[in-house]
User: Fold this.
Amino acid sequence: MTEQIGTPAAGEREQFGPLQGVKVVSLCQAIAGPFACALLGDLGADVIGIENPKGRDTSRPQNEFLQGWGTQLDRRNSRSLCMDVRKGRGREIFFQLLKETDILVEGFRGGQMVKWDMSDETLWEVNPKLVIVHISGFGQTGDPDYVSRASFDGIGQAFSGYMEMNGFGDRLPVPAFPQPSDYFTGLFGDVAALAAFHRAQVTGKGESIDIAQFEAMQRVSGFYLMNYLNTGALPVREGSHSTSSAGYGAYTCSDGVPLYILVLGAGVVRNLLPVLGIKQGEDPLFPVGMPVVAFKSEAGAALEAKLDEFFASHTAAEAEEILLGAGVPCSRIYTFADCVSDPHYQAREVYTSWKNEYDDNQIKGINVIPRLKNNPGKITRGMPLVGQHNEEILESLGVSTDEIAQLYDQGTIRHEETPFG
Assistant:
């Protein structure tokens, strides 16, 4: 596990990564928006998270039992300004900040910014080159009864049809974890934001991006959605094993450890059969060149029986070694403990640690992903306390010390002394 040490002095930012010089402002709570901004911050963007003085992000640390580990990750490499941006002096300061902002990410219900008189057109009057990313459950346009709905990850999965595909066919659908609706939405937001930012540098004209959770999940439904649209066939919940292909799923080995295998393609079929004592070409069920073994077929039943026998007589480590040696794709189903102890994880330094922003303790977490060779990302700050950088940010905008004190007195800005509030 590597260690990344150091917090820049107040008012200073270490310049690194391909996004150095890019300023991102976030009006988001967990998970999609902060995740999107964290990816940009890991690659060098200056991220300022604006938090509401009257509504604490529930994903932040709450107490010794709810440590907010996801927020420790998704608010790293960012600064916190806790300020009411909806009206009065807070709104004026917010607009002033937007003048020097490249990308604004907001995560409210559809239409909320318009209700605050912060439409795209209003924001472009402040900064014509601003890229605005709207992350919501149901989008900014469409049926008004849907646009105004609140959403969380599970709602995005349910409404998109994604949840219906997960689980076992003889029981209720289950949500996929951890929170793919949030994370995919954040990723789509980043892709569009960076494309729009590039175009804004060329044309001087900003962009508005409308990304809805349910649409992101529809986009990643791939084959299954396309199959329905073109054939009318609804997907079948497969549970832990494919319902169409033999040798495609999870199996329990002699030591009780599960292993996942995919027998797809003529080469893989050819490689697996000798391991199971099957002579391809001689056995009429397994002709040469067979690309896949249908699950509900005589060959499929025979292959499944042989696989059950094989796994019952080998530990997961033994089975994995034999299969990989034969050129059959498989993996033991890892726990996080297995991941941390695995030599490949260690060799690639997948895990690292960084210094807290508010004390001298270290946080362990995932390293910067993806990896860049020439302009690598870094972790230079841990999760800030709510409002930790109020003075630093406001003073950089020309707000005086006396006015900052007044803003605290008025409740326009706020800060917290501990990670728990």
Q: What stands out?
A: The chain has a mean pLDDT of 96.
